[in-house]
Design goal:
Elements: H1 7-12, E1 21-26, E2 32-38, E3 41-46, H2 62-77, H3 87-109, H4 113-133, H5 137-141, H6 147-164, H7 168-185, H8 188-191, H9 195-207, H10 213-228, H11 232-245
Antiparallel strand pairs: 1-2, 2-3
């Protein structure tokens, strides 16, 4: 294959420091592909399946391949006990997750929120699979530090979809659910200062106007009286209302 200089392609779409440049262009056979301009070139990704467009052992992705391995193992042994991912597959899963990360960040900038939800849910599934079946600590927990970021991106995309459908209350509920997920996995001493928590709360604040301090104080007083009276059903309702309005 003849070598090709990419200078003309790069000059036609120059890098702009400080700006995230992303576009969808038409590839061979009118196939849309996603492109991100970086300082040293262009990242090109497929819109679905593995971003690099390759298959793993005939499957759409390495995650699909190891999930099939698990299903085969369960059929043979009656359970998943004893099943582990090979070190090579664990490495491929980590590399694959990075590809999906690059794609869903780019898709978010284009407002392709359904695709972002698809890819973030997929990466969370990958993180869970590795944690369940990795053979070493590195293989089990290598992706776990990225879980808060993936949850946050999924939550933002889900909320944006709800807002686009004029479902503001649903968007707030989705954000609150995302915050609850983060609270379960982040150390208590780091929760309030977490960038992910600050970002989601900021998004929620744009959707929900602040209660006047007098109204908030009244709700808090009603909550305390409900707790004192052991009316836990009312207390749960009031607590949820305070959480949504905070």
């Amino acid at each position: 294959m003849a070598q090709q200089d990419l200078s003309e392609i790069l000059q036609a779409w120059p890098h702009e420091p400080g700006r995230f440049l992303v576009r969808i262009v038409e590839g061979p056979e009118a196939r849309p592909v996603l492109q991100v301009r970086i300082d040293l070139g262009i990242l090109q990704m497929e819109m679905a399946g593995r971003p690099d467009g390759i298959t793993i052992r005939g499957f759409e992705s390495c995650l699909h391949a190891v999930q099939k391995d698990l299903a085969t193992y369960q059929e043979a042994h009656g359970s998943s006990r004893g099943f582990v991912i090979s070190p090579e597959d664990a490495r491929l899963l980590r590399e694959e997750a990075a590809q999906y990360f690059h794609r869903y960040v780019a898709l978010f900038h284009l407002g392709r929120f359904e695709d972002v939800v698809r890819d973030t849910r997929r990466n969370l599934e990958c993180i869970d699979f590795c944690q369940s079946f990795g053979s070493t600590d590195q293989d089990r927990f290598g992706l776990d530090p990225f879980r808060p970021q993936v949850i946050t991106m999924r939550t933002r995309a889900e909320a944006e979809l709800a807002v686009g459908n004029e479902q503001g209350n649903m968007a707030v509920q989705l954000i609150n659910h995302g915050l609850e997920e983060l609270e379960e996995i982040l150390p208590a001493e780091h929760f309030e200062q977490s960038n992910e928590v600050i970002l989601l709360r900021g998004m929620r604040d744009l959707l929900v106007p602040k209660l006047p301090s007098s109204q908030r104080a009244e709700l808090e007083d009603r909550l305390q009286r409900a707790l004192d009276a052991e009316n836990y059903e009312l207390a749960a309702i009031l607590r949820d209302e305070l959480r949504q309005m905070s």
